[in-house]
Amino acid sequence: MSRTVKIEKKILEKNDTIAARLRNNFAKRKLAVINIMSSPGAGKTTLLAETIKKLSGRISIGIIVGDIATDHDAKILEDAGAFWAIQINTGGRCHLEAGMIEAVMELAPEKLNLLIIENIGNLVCPAGYDLGENVTVMLGALTEGIDKPKKYPGMYRACSRLVINKTDLENALDIKADDFEKEALMVNPKLEIFKTSAKTGNGMNEWCGWIASLVNAEH
Ligand SMILES: Nc1nc2c(ncn2[C@@H]2O[C@H](COP(=O)(O)OP(=O)(O)OP(=O)(O)O)[C@@H](O)[C@H]2O)c(=O)[nH]1
Ligand SMILES: [Mg+2]
Questions:
Q1: Which residue's CA is minimally distant from atom 12 of ligand 1?
Q2: Whose CA is nearest to atom 25 of ligand 1?
Q3: Ligand 1: does its nearest atom lie under 6 Å from the Cβ of 145?
Q4: How far apart are CA 147 and CA 134, in angstroms?
Q5: From the CA of 46, how far away is ligand 2's center (Å)?
Q6: Cβ(78) to ligand 1 under 6 A?
Q7: Right CATH for 2-214 from 3.40.50.300, 2.50.20.10, 1.20.1050.10, 3.40.50.2300
Q8: Distance separating alpha carbons of residues 125 and 122, to the nearest angstrom
Q9: pLDDT, tens digit, 9 for 90 and up, residues 68-123
Q10: Strands (DSSP E) along 100-191, which ranges?
């Protein structure tokens, strides 16, 4: 058992070293970087596709998407107007690691001014792996139920922003976004919160306004 813990510690230390190097390189390039995490199907790709459609005329957005298999999401985001979109298939690993990001950044075009990393849908492991980002965003969907912040506190504490998505389904689910917000704030009172429907566009102006404000901001 103690051997397992030691190996895990070593992997995380290696990840942190690469993440620090990445952060340094992102800063040199003046590149804002977001790591967005959620459970599978909460709406990351849909939200990002709508975000890119709104902002791609003004901002060169690069996307790195992690999934266990398929290039489905990268294709959607490329079609939405991403300046650069690349898919990482982990084959079975349930999270992205800094080494994977560093490897694909060798292919990134110079002209990017915002990089968004869509992490693998999973409410546990991605929270433990620094990817050199400036901002960590958690996306919770009303369809998951409002007990999730308390059941997965590590993820909610690892993030500084929370998007509560699928607000169009409030009535159908009989779950209020305001109640989800209260639960999340009990776990992490510092969360800054957006409420969106990537389907109807509700709340998208506030979310996209914040995303745009990250470009050229001091990191
Ligand atoms: N009603 C509703 N459906 C949504 C919303 N956002 C996403 N969806 C739907 O939810 C499903 C999953 O959305 P995705 O964007 O693929 O979710 P994801 O988080 O990227 O999923 P993974 O990458 O597999 O983890 C799709 O059928 C979307 O159309 C929303 O705001 N409202
Ligand atoms: Mg996706």
A1: 41
A2: 40
A3: no
A4: 28
A5: 7
A6: no
A7: 3.40.50.300
A8: 7
A9: 999 999 999 999 999 999 999 999 999 999 999 999 999 999 999 999 999 999 99
A10: 114-118, 135-141, 161-165
